[in-house]
Amino acid sequence: MKASLIALLFPLLFVSTSVWASSAPALDLTHSTVGYACLIIFAIAYTLVMLEEVLQLRKSKPVLLAAGIIWAILGYVYSQNGIAEQAHAALEHNLLEYAELLLFLLVAMTYINAMEERNLFDALQAWMVGKGFNFKTLFWLTGILAFFISPIADNLTTALLMCAVVMKVAGDNKRFVNIACINIVIAANAGGAFSPFGDITTLMVWQAGHVAFSEFMPLFIPSVVNYVVPAVIMSFFVPNTQPNTIHQHIELKRGARRIVGLFILTIMTAVAFHAVLHFPPVVGMMMGLAYLQFFGFYLRKTLRASLTRKAAMAIANRDDLALKRLGSVVPFDVFRRVSHAEWDTLLFFYGVVMCVGGLSLLGYLGMASEIMYTQWDPIWANVMVGILSAIVDNIPVMFAVLTMDPALSMGNWLLVTLTAGVGGSLLSIGSAAGVALMGAAHGQYTFFGHLKWAPVIGLGYIASILVHLWLNGGMF
């Protein structure tokens, strides 16, 4: 009875990068009224998160409230027992873990927003539309690009970019939009699984020190298999007909390509801080933000000279459209790019970390860890983590695993990184990419439209695990 109860509650416990659950909590409150109350509060909050599209309630709101209530309860209980300093230390530890990830993601989002503002993604979209590809070619092209862009730009941004292309070329062909969006979600999640920058889950594993930057590469082939297997099957249901498209020329703004170069340099700086100096990668990322700030300063200072030169060329060529574009130029502002970061996601991240940091202090993650990683084979436990990530979302799932801090081999750490990353593709609500595309392609890409392809996606999930076990068996 107890085991079945824990199995039912287990998905609700997934969240936080701290290692507090790896040691016994000062107070075991797992069977207390306080413990049950905190579980119920978190369950209600996460239910509201899952109903975000229905309720039109931003997902950060319920978890922020739940986090405050849970820690208020913990603070009162620990104060009553005369050990308030232990709860305070646990709270500070969780805040530190969150702060590192917040700053890291903030810099990455700022760079992506800067590239978007410089028309880099619009230019890519216009190029694809202007080539006159048929539906089947677009299906494969958007999927392959999603797979290879997501390791750098993260799976959420990549999925939204490719979805914009699909929506632009598909017109009223809802069937193509649905199957193309499914393909994009699978590709973006698979591509993000073998790179620390491809998904928040892989970033957390890297920052926690369980897998070094170069050690993610053994997941490349399993990730390819995870994408290709369902994509090949789905491609037979994509028509070869030509979409009706209108080509639109998009001109890159000044500095677009150089910002891409600075982003690559920022990634290299973060890796160097982590691998060479053994500092958190966030230190290198914040240094990379300085690169962008100085470049923004250069763009602003040289704007007048650049506009004068381009205006003279436009007048000489009698290009009225070029003159009109120059009249609407807005100086580059780094802090405006920071303000465009996905703050709802970042605040949701905080709420989730703090909620399950509290549940960890109550002792629930230690209980779940005992069952999954002691009584079960770690391989089966990690496979189950991927399945749960389709229901609960892969970010909180990976938080829970890192909170448990089980003693795993490198092969198993790579396996749980793979399953948590690609398991979210099984359902549309299982990853940030899927949830975002349900909003971007509202009414065309739906939960049930994705669900009918779940068995095919499941084949890719199983195949990728088997390939990993076969190719990287020596790591277990």
UniProtKB/TrEMBL annotation:
<dbReference type="InterPro" id="IPR004680">
    <property type="entry name" value="Cit_transptr-like_dom"/>
</dbReference>
<keyword id="KW-1133">Transmembrane helix</keyword>
<protein>
    <submittedName>
        <fullName>Sodium:proton antiporter NhaD</fullName>
    </submittedName>
</protein>
<dbReference type="Pfam" id="PF03600">
    <property type="entry name" value="CitMHS"/>
</dbReference>
<keyword id="KW-0915">Sodium</keyword>
<feature type="transmembrane region" description="Helical">
    <location>
        <begin position="155"/>
        <end position="171"/>
    </location>
</feature>
<keyword id="KW-0472">Membrane</keyword>
<keyword id="KW-0050">Antiport</keyword>
<keyword id="KW-0732">Signal</keyword>
<feature type="transmembrane region" description="Helical">
    <location>
        <begin position="63"/>
        <end position="83"/>
    </location>
</feature>
<keyword id="KW-0813">Transport</keyword>
<feature type="signal peptide">
    <location>
        <begin position="1"/>
        <end position="21"/>
    </location>
</feature>
<feature type="transmembrane region" description="Helical">
    <location>
        <begin position="31"/>
        <end position="51"/>
    </location>
</feature>
<feature type="transmembrane region" description="Helical">
    <location>
        <begin position="282"/>
        <end position="299"/>
    </location>
</feature>
<feature type="domain" description="Citrate transporter-like">
    <location>
        <begin position="47"/>
        <end position="421"/>
    </location>
</feature>
<feature type="transmembrane region" description="Helical">
    <location>
        <begin position="453"/>
        <end position="471"/>
    </location>
</feature>
<feature type="transmembrane region" description="Helical">
    <location>
        <begin position="414"/>
        <end position="441"/>
    </location>
</feature>
<feature type="transmembrane region" description="Helical">
    <location>
        <begin position="379"/>
        <end position="402"/>
    </location>
</feature>
<feature type="transmembrane region" description="Helical">
    <location>
        <begin position="259"/>
        <end position="276"/>
    </location>
</feature>
<keyword id="KW-0406">Ion transport</keyword>
<feature type="transmembrane region" description="Helical">
    <location>
        <begin position="346"/>
        <end position="367"/>
    </location>
</feature>
<dbReference type="InterPro" id="IPR045016">
    <property type="entry name" value="NhaD-like"/>
</dbReference>
<comment type="similarity">
    <text>Belongs to the NhaD Na(+)/H(+) (TC 2.A.62) antiporter family.</text>
</comment>
<keyword id="KW-0812">Transmembrane</keyword>
<keyword id="KW-0739">Sodium transport</keyword>
<feature type="transmembrane region" description="Helical">
    <location>
        <begin position="217"/>
        <end position="238"/>
    </location>
</feature>
<feature type="transmembrane region" description="Helical">
    <location>
        <begin position="176"/>
        <end position="197"/>
    </location>
</feature>
